[in-house]
Amino acid sequence: MNLKKYRVEDKLKLSAFKTNETGKGSEAEALERSAARQPKLAAWQERLYAEGKQSLLIVLQARDAGGKDGTVKHVLHGLNPQGVVVTSFKVPTAQELSHDFLWRVHAAAPAAGMIAVFNRSHYEDVLVTRVHGLIDQPEAEARYEQIRAFEALLMGRHTRILKLYLHVSKDEQKERLQARLDDPQKRWKFNPGDLKERELWDDYTRAYQDAISATSSKDAPWYVIPADHKWLRDDLIGQLLLETLDDMNPKFPEPSFDPAAVQIR
Ligand code: AMP
Ligand code: MG
């Protein structure tokens, strides 16, 4: 599949992107592709870690029940946990609020050799805050600029940045929230507060469109991933990850000694 069509190049209009795409083949084929990809991802990750120079940052954003946790579980499960750090950003604590909004985010940026996954991210600071009127439009614009500068700083340190918006429909969200309510094993994930956010669906759409349009660039692109079907979501993100690591092309380091001259007694 050509992933270019999911990339945000101009001003984003979410309605131009489908949520329920099924791709070309069947679900079984997509699952097979995802499974076959796991060892390849793991092999690249090992090189990235061994090289210890570059790093990868994956930003996951979505509405509630949009599939962020599922993406972490299904796309990254074959990687070596030693080389991956997942950070889930919650409502900022009092201490975090006493700093600038990027303070806690910068601390979670990937060290050389590492893959960092942001389950929610600094983008919450221009989304939920904007929708609830905690910041106004000029402040949002100022933050976009600060985000662009922050991401440029990371890229200057050889961090590749992938930003993914998991695109689900309002109906799909309803089904998933209902399933959380009905299934005792999923109920712990149900947050009655999510229903209030759901009522603000259109405000979030505007906030996402605005923020993504302002921060998608050639070097730090946003992708809108059709996410109603989890199997397609995982297949597309896996492919994107593999293509990105392939392009980064990390290499095992050359030894600083002559291995032939070493004798282990
Ligand atoms: P969950 O991802 O379901 O665990 O929920 C985390 C909650 O934290 C969501 O309601 C987010 O909107 C909220 N949150 C995360 N980051 C921020 C932030 N920077 N400012 C305000 N709320 C946030
Ligand atoms: Mg939640």
Overall description:
It is a single chain. The chain is an alpha/beta fold. The protein has one domain: Rossmann fold. Helices cover 46% and strands 12% of the residues. It contains ten helices and five strands, in the order H-E-H-E-H-H-E-H-H-E-H-H-H-E-H. The chain has a five-stranded parallel sheet with strand order 2-3-1-4-5, with helices on both faces. The longest helix is centred in the first third of the chain and has 25 residues, at 27-51. The protein is globular and about 70 Å long. Bound molecules: adenosine monophosphate (AMP) and magnesium ion (MG). Magnesium ion binds at residues 64, 191, 194.
Low-pLDDT regions: none
Q: Please state roughly what percent of the residues sit in beta strands, choosing from under 5%, 5-15%, 15-25%, 25-35%, 35-45% or over 45%.
A: 5-15%
Largest sheet: 5 strands, parallel
Order of helices and strands: HEHEHHEHHEHHHEH
Overall geometric form: globular
Number of discrete domains: 1
Distance between the termini: 53 Å
Average pLDDT number: 97
Spell out the CATH superfamily: P-loop containing nucleotide triphosphate hydrolases
Spatial strand arrangement across the major sheet: 2-3-1-4-5
CATH-defined topology: Rossmann fold
For the CA atoms, what is the radius of gyration? 20 Å
Secondary structure tally: strands: 5
CATH-scheme architecture: 3-Layer(aba) Sandwich
Instruction: Assign the structural class, choosing from mainly alpha, mainly beta, alpha/beta, alpha+beta, or little secondary structure.
Output: alpha/beta
* SS element count, helices: 10
